[in-house]
Specification:
It is a single chain. By secondary structure, this protein is of the alpha/beta class. It has two domains: about 80 residues, GMP Synthetase, Chain A, domain 3 (2-Layer Sandwich), CATH 3.30.300; about 260 residues, 3-Layer(aba) Sandwich (Rossmann fold). It has twelve helices and 15 strands. The strands form three sheets. Strands 4, 5, 8, 9, 10, 11, 12, 13 and 14 form a nine-stranded mixed beta sheet that branches. A four-stranded mixed beta sheet has the order 1-2-3-15. Strand 2, helix 3 and strand 3 form a beta-alpha-beta unit.
């Protein structure tokens, strides 16, 4: 029989609502160990998403919660990560070596989708995951420039497999590596979809926890090809607060629903303009668009990201915000968004026979 202090510890842990997922630890089945030893509460938690830096965020919150639950002992916390493949469309199976494909999409252009996609990938890598980016915008590839690797050419291994290009701790593939970037892509739909499937299937991605697919705007051939031929574990919809952008984002969300790709949540980009001189924040594009969508469709609001001139400058220079200024408040917004996105994915049903997990341990 557990001692009274350990009973209080177990009950307190079970009722603690995890800030990234919004679900209590009991429902998450995250508690691996919870004992009182040597006058200290020793707790080990295991999550299904990257946990780099998370123990430091959790420690004071969990300690305060346990104290209120009657646990008097100081807390020793250990956090580990077990990233598994999640279920995809019924007719498809997860890709070999890639645990989870996550599409980042928008209903219209100009909402900063590619900036969100690249910083999402970099944030996951910074938090301890193995990450790749596929630039699926065949007509307007932007990831080579954003990652500072424009003009590079991938090598081909054994005449067949294309080697992705590494940058800032992730690997990337884009049609922009294979063509003259000054020339327009005057291709019909079948050529575009064939190019996408070849870029995805012929690239030697290695072992990845996440492959972020930066989608082109809209709901056309690329989106349908992705839904029908690519095993997607979840989609993220990027919008800005104003009503016209939200109206188009709704179309993107409904498109993924129709093709049985789960929408992990909404990212409201350019929520607040932050003055680079005085720091004053103002909602110049309005407010509440992302929150309105979350209420309407019952999905999560994964993040509200700032409109900051430095984000544009950093991305244009080939060092996106998470890589260029990882300790800045604007990077913190991306890191928090990435954590919530991975947590939303981790709550989904596991795929049968998923890829071998990556386990990382972080202790405080």
């Amino acid at each position: 029989m557990a001692a009274p202090d350990e009973t209080a510890l177990a009950a307190g842990l079970a009722g603690f609502v995890d800030p990234a997922s919004g679900v209590n630890l009991g429902t998450l089945e995250a508690v691996q160990r919870a004992v009182i030893e040597g006058g200290r509460a020793r707790v080990a938690l295991r999550y299904g998403f990257p946990i780099g830096g998370y123990a430091h965020e959790l420690q004071p919150l969990l300690a305060a919660h346990l104290g209120a639950a009657g646990v008097r002992e100081p807390l020793d916390l250990e956090v580990s990560s077990d990233i598994r493949a999640r279920a995809v469309q019924r007719q498809l199976k997860p890709m070999s070596g890639i645990a989870n494909v996550v599409a980042v999409a928008s209903g219209k252009g100009g909402v900063g989708k590619s900036t969100v996609a690249v910083n999402l990938a970099l944030a996951w890598a910074a938090q301890g995951a193995r990450v790749g980016v596929l630039d699926a915008d065949i007509y307007g590839p932007s990831q080579p420039l954003m990652l500072g690797i424009a003009g590079q050419r991938p090598q081909v291994k054994e005449g067949k497999r294309i080697q992705p290009i590494a940058s800032h701790g992730i690997v990337a593939m884009s049609i922009g590596f294979l063509i003259d970037e000054s020339q327009p892509m005057v291709w019909r739909g079948p050529m575009v979809t064939q190019a996408l499937t070849q870029l995805l299937g012929d690239t030697d991605w290695g072992q990845l926890d996440y492959l972020v697919v930066d989608m082109p705007p809209g709901t056309g051939d690329i989106q349908l090809t992705l839904a029908q031929k690519v095993p997607v574990a979840g989609a993220v919809i990027v919008t800005t607060p104003q009503h016209i952008a939200v109206a188009d984002a709704r179309k993107g969300l409904k498109m993924f629903e129709k093709v049985s790709v789960p929408v992990l949540g909404i990212v409201e980009n350019m929520s607040l303009h932050v003055c680079s001189n005085c720091g004053h924040a103002e909602a110049i594009f309005g407010e509440g668009g992302g929150e309105e969508m979350t209420r309407e469709y019952g999905v999560a609001l994964l993040g509200r990201l700032p409109l900051d001139a430095r984000i544009r400058e950093e991305t244009d220079s080939g060092r996106p915000t998470v890589a260029a200024a990882p300790d800045s408040p604007r990077a913190a917004a991306y890191l928090a968004m990435a954590r919530r996105t991975a947590a939303a994915l981790a709550l989904r049903e596991r795929a049968s026979g998923g890829a071998f997990p990556q386990i990382v341990v972080e202790a405080t």
